[in-house]
Amino acid sequence: MSIEKVLEKVDAIEAGQDAKIAEAKLAVEAVIAEKVDAVKTETQEKLAAVEAKLSEIGSTPTIKTYKTISAEVNRSVKATT
Predict the structure, then answer these.
(1) Which of 13, 30, 35, 81 has the smallest number of CB atoms closer than 10 Å to its CB?
(2) What pTM was computed for the model?
(3) If DSSP codes are grouped into helix, strand and coil, which group holds residue 35?
(4) E strand or H helix at 63, and its extent?
(5) Tens-digit pLDDT profile for residues 10-64
(6) What tens digit of pLDDT does each residue of 61-77 get?
(7) Burial class of residue 62, CB neighbours in 10 A (0-12, 13-18, 19+)
(8) How many CB atoms are closer than 10 A to CB 72?
(9) What is d(CA 11, CA 21) in angstroms, rounded to the nearest whole number?
């Protein structure tokens, strides 16, 4: 076999391998895109569930105000005793 024929065969093998690599890359990218979409959907669902739970809890006032000064004084006296 001449060197030219060997080089032609090597080039043909290389071209075939390059095509297979490109095909595999496309397949992997498609799978990755699918997985990313699934994770995004799952994350959005979990976030919606957490938001729903938070809205059910409601907010409690952090500062309790009293209508009269005497009620505030009574509260502060009871807290210290």
Answers:
(1) 81
(2) 0.52
(3) helix
(4) none
(5) 999 999 999 999 999 999 999 999 999 999 999 999 999 998 888 877 666 666 6
(6) 666 677 788 887 787 77
(7) exposed
(8) 13
(9) 15
Structure tokens at 59: 């907010």
Coil, helix or strand at residue 76: helix
The one-letter amino acid at 31? V
Integer Cα distance of 58 and 78 in angstroms? 28
Tokens 């990755």 locate to 32
Cβ partners under 8 Å of residue 72, min gap 6 = 66
Q: Give the Cα-Cα-Cα angle 21, 24, 27 (nearest 5 degrees).
A: 155
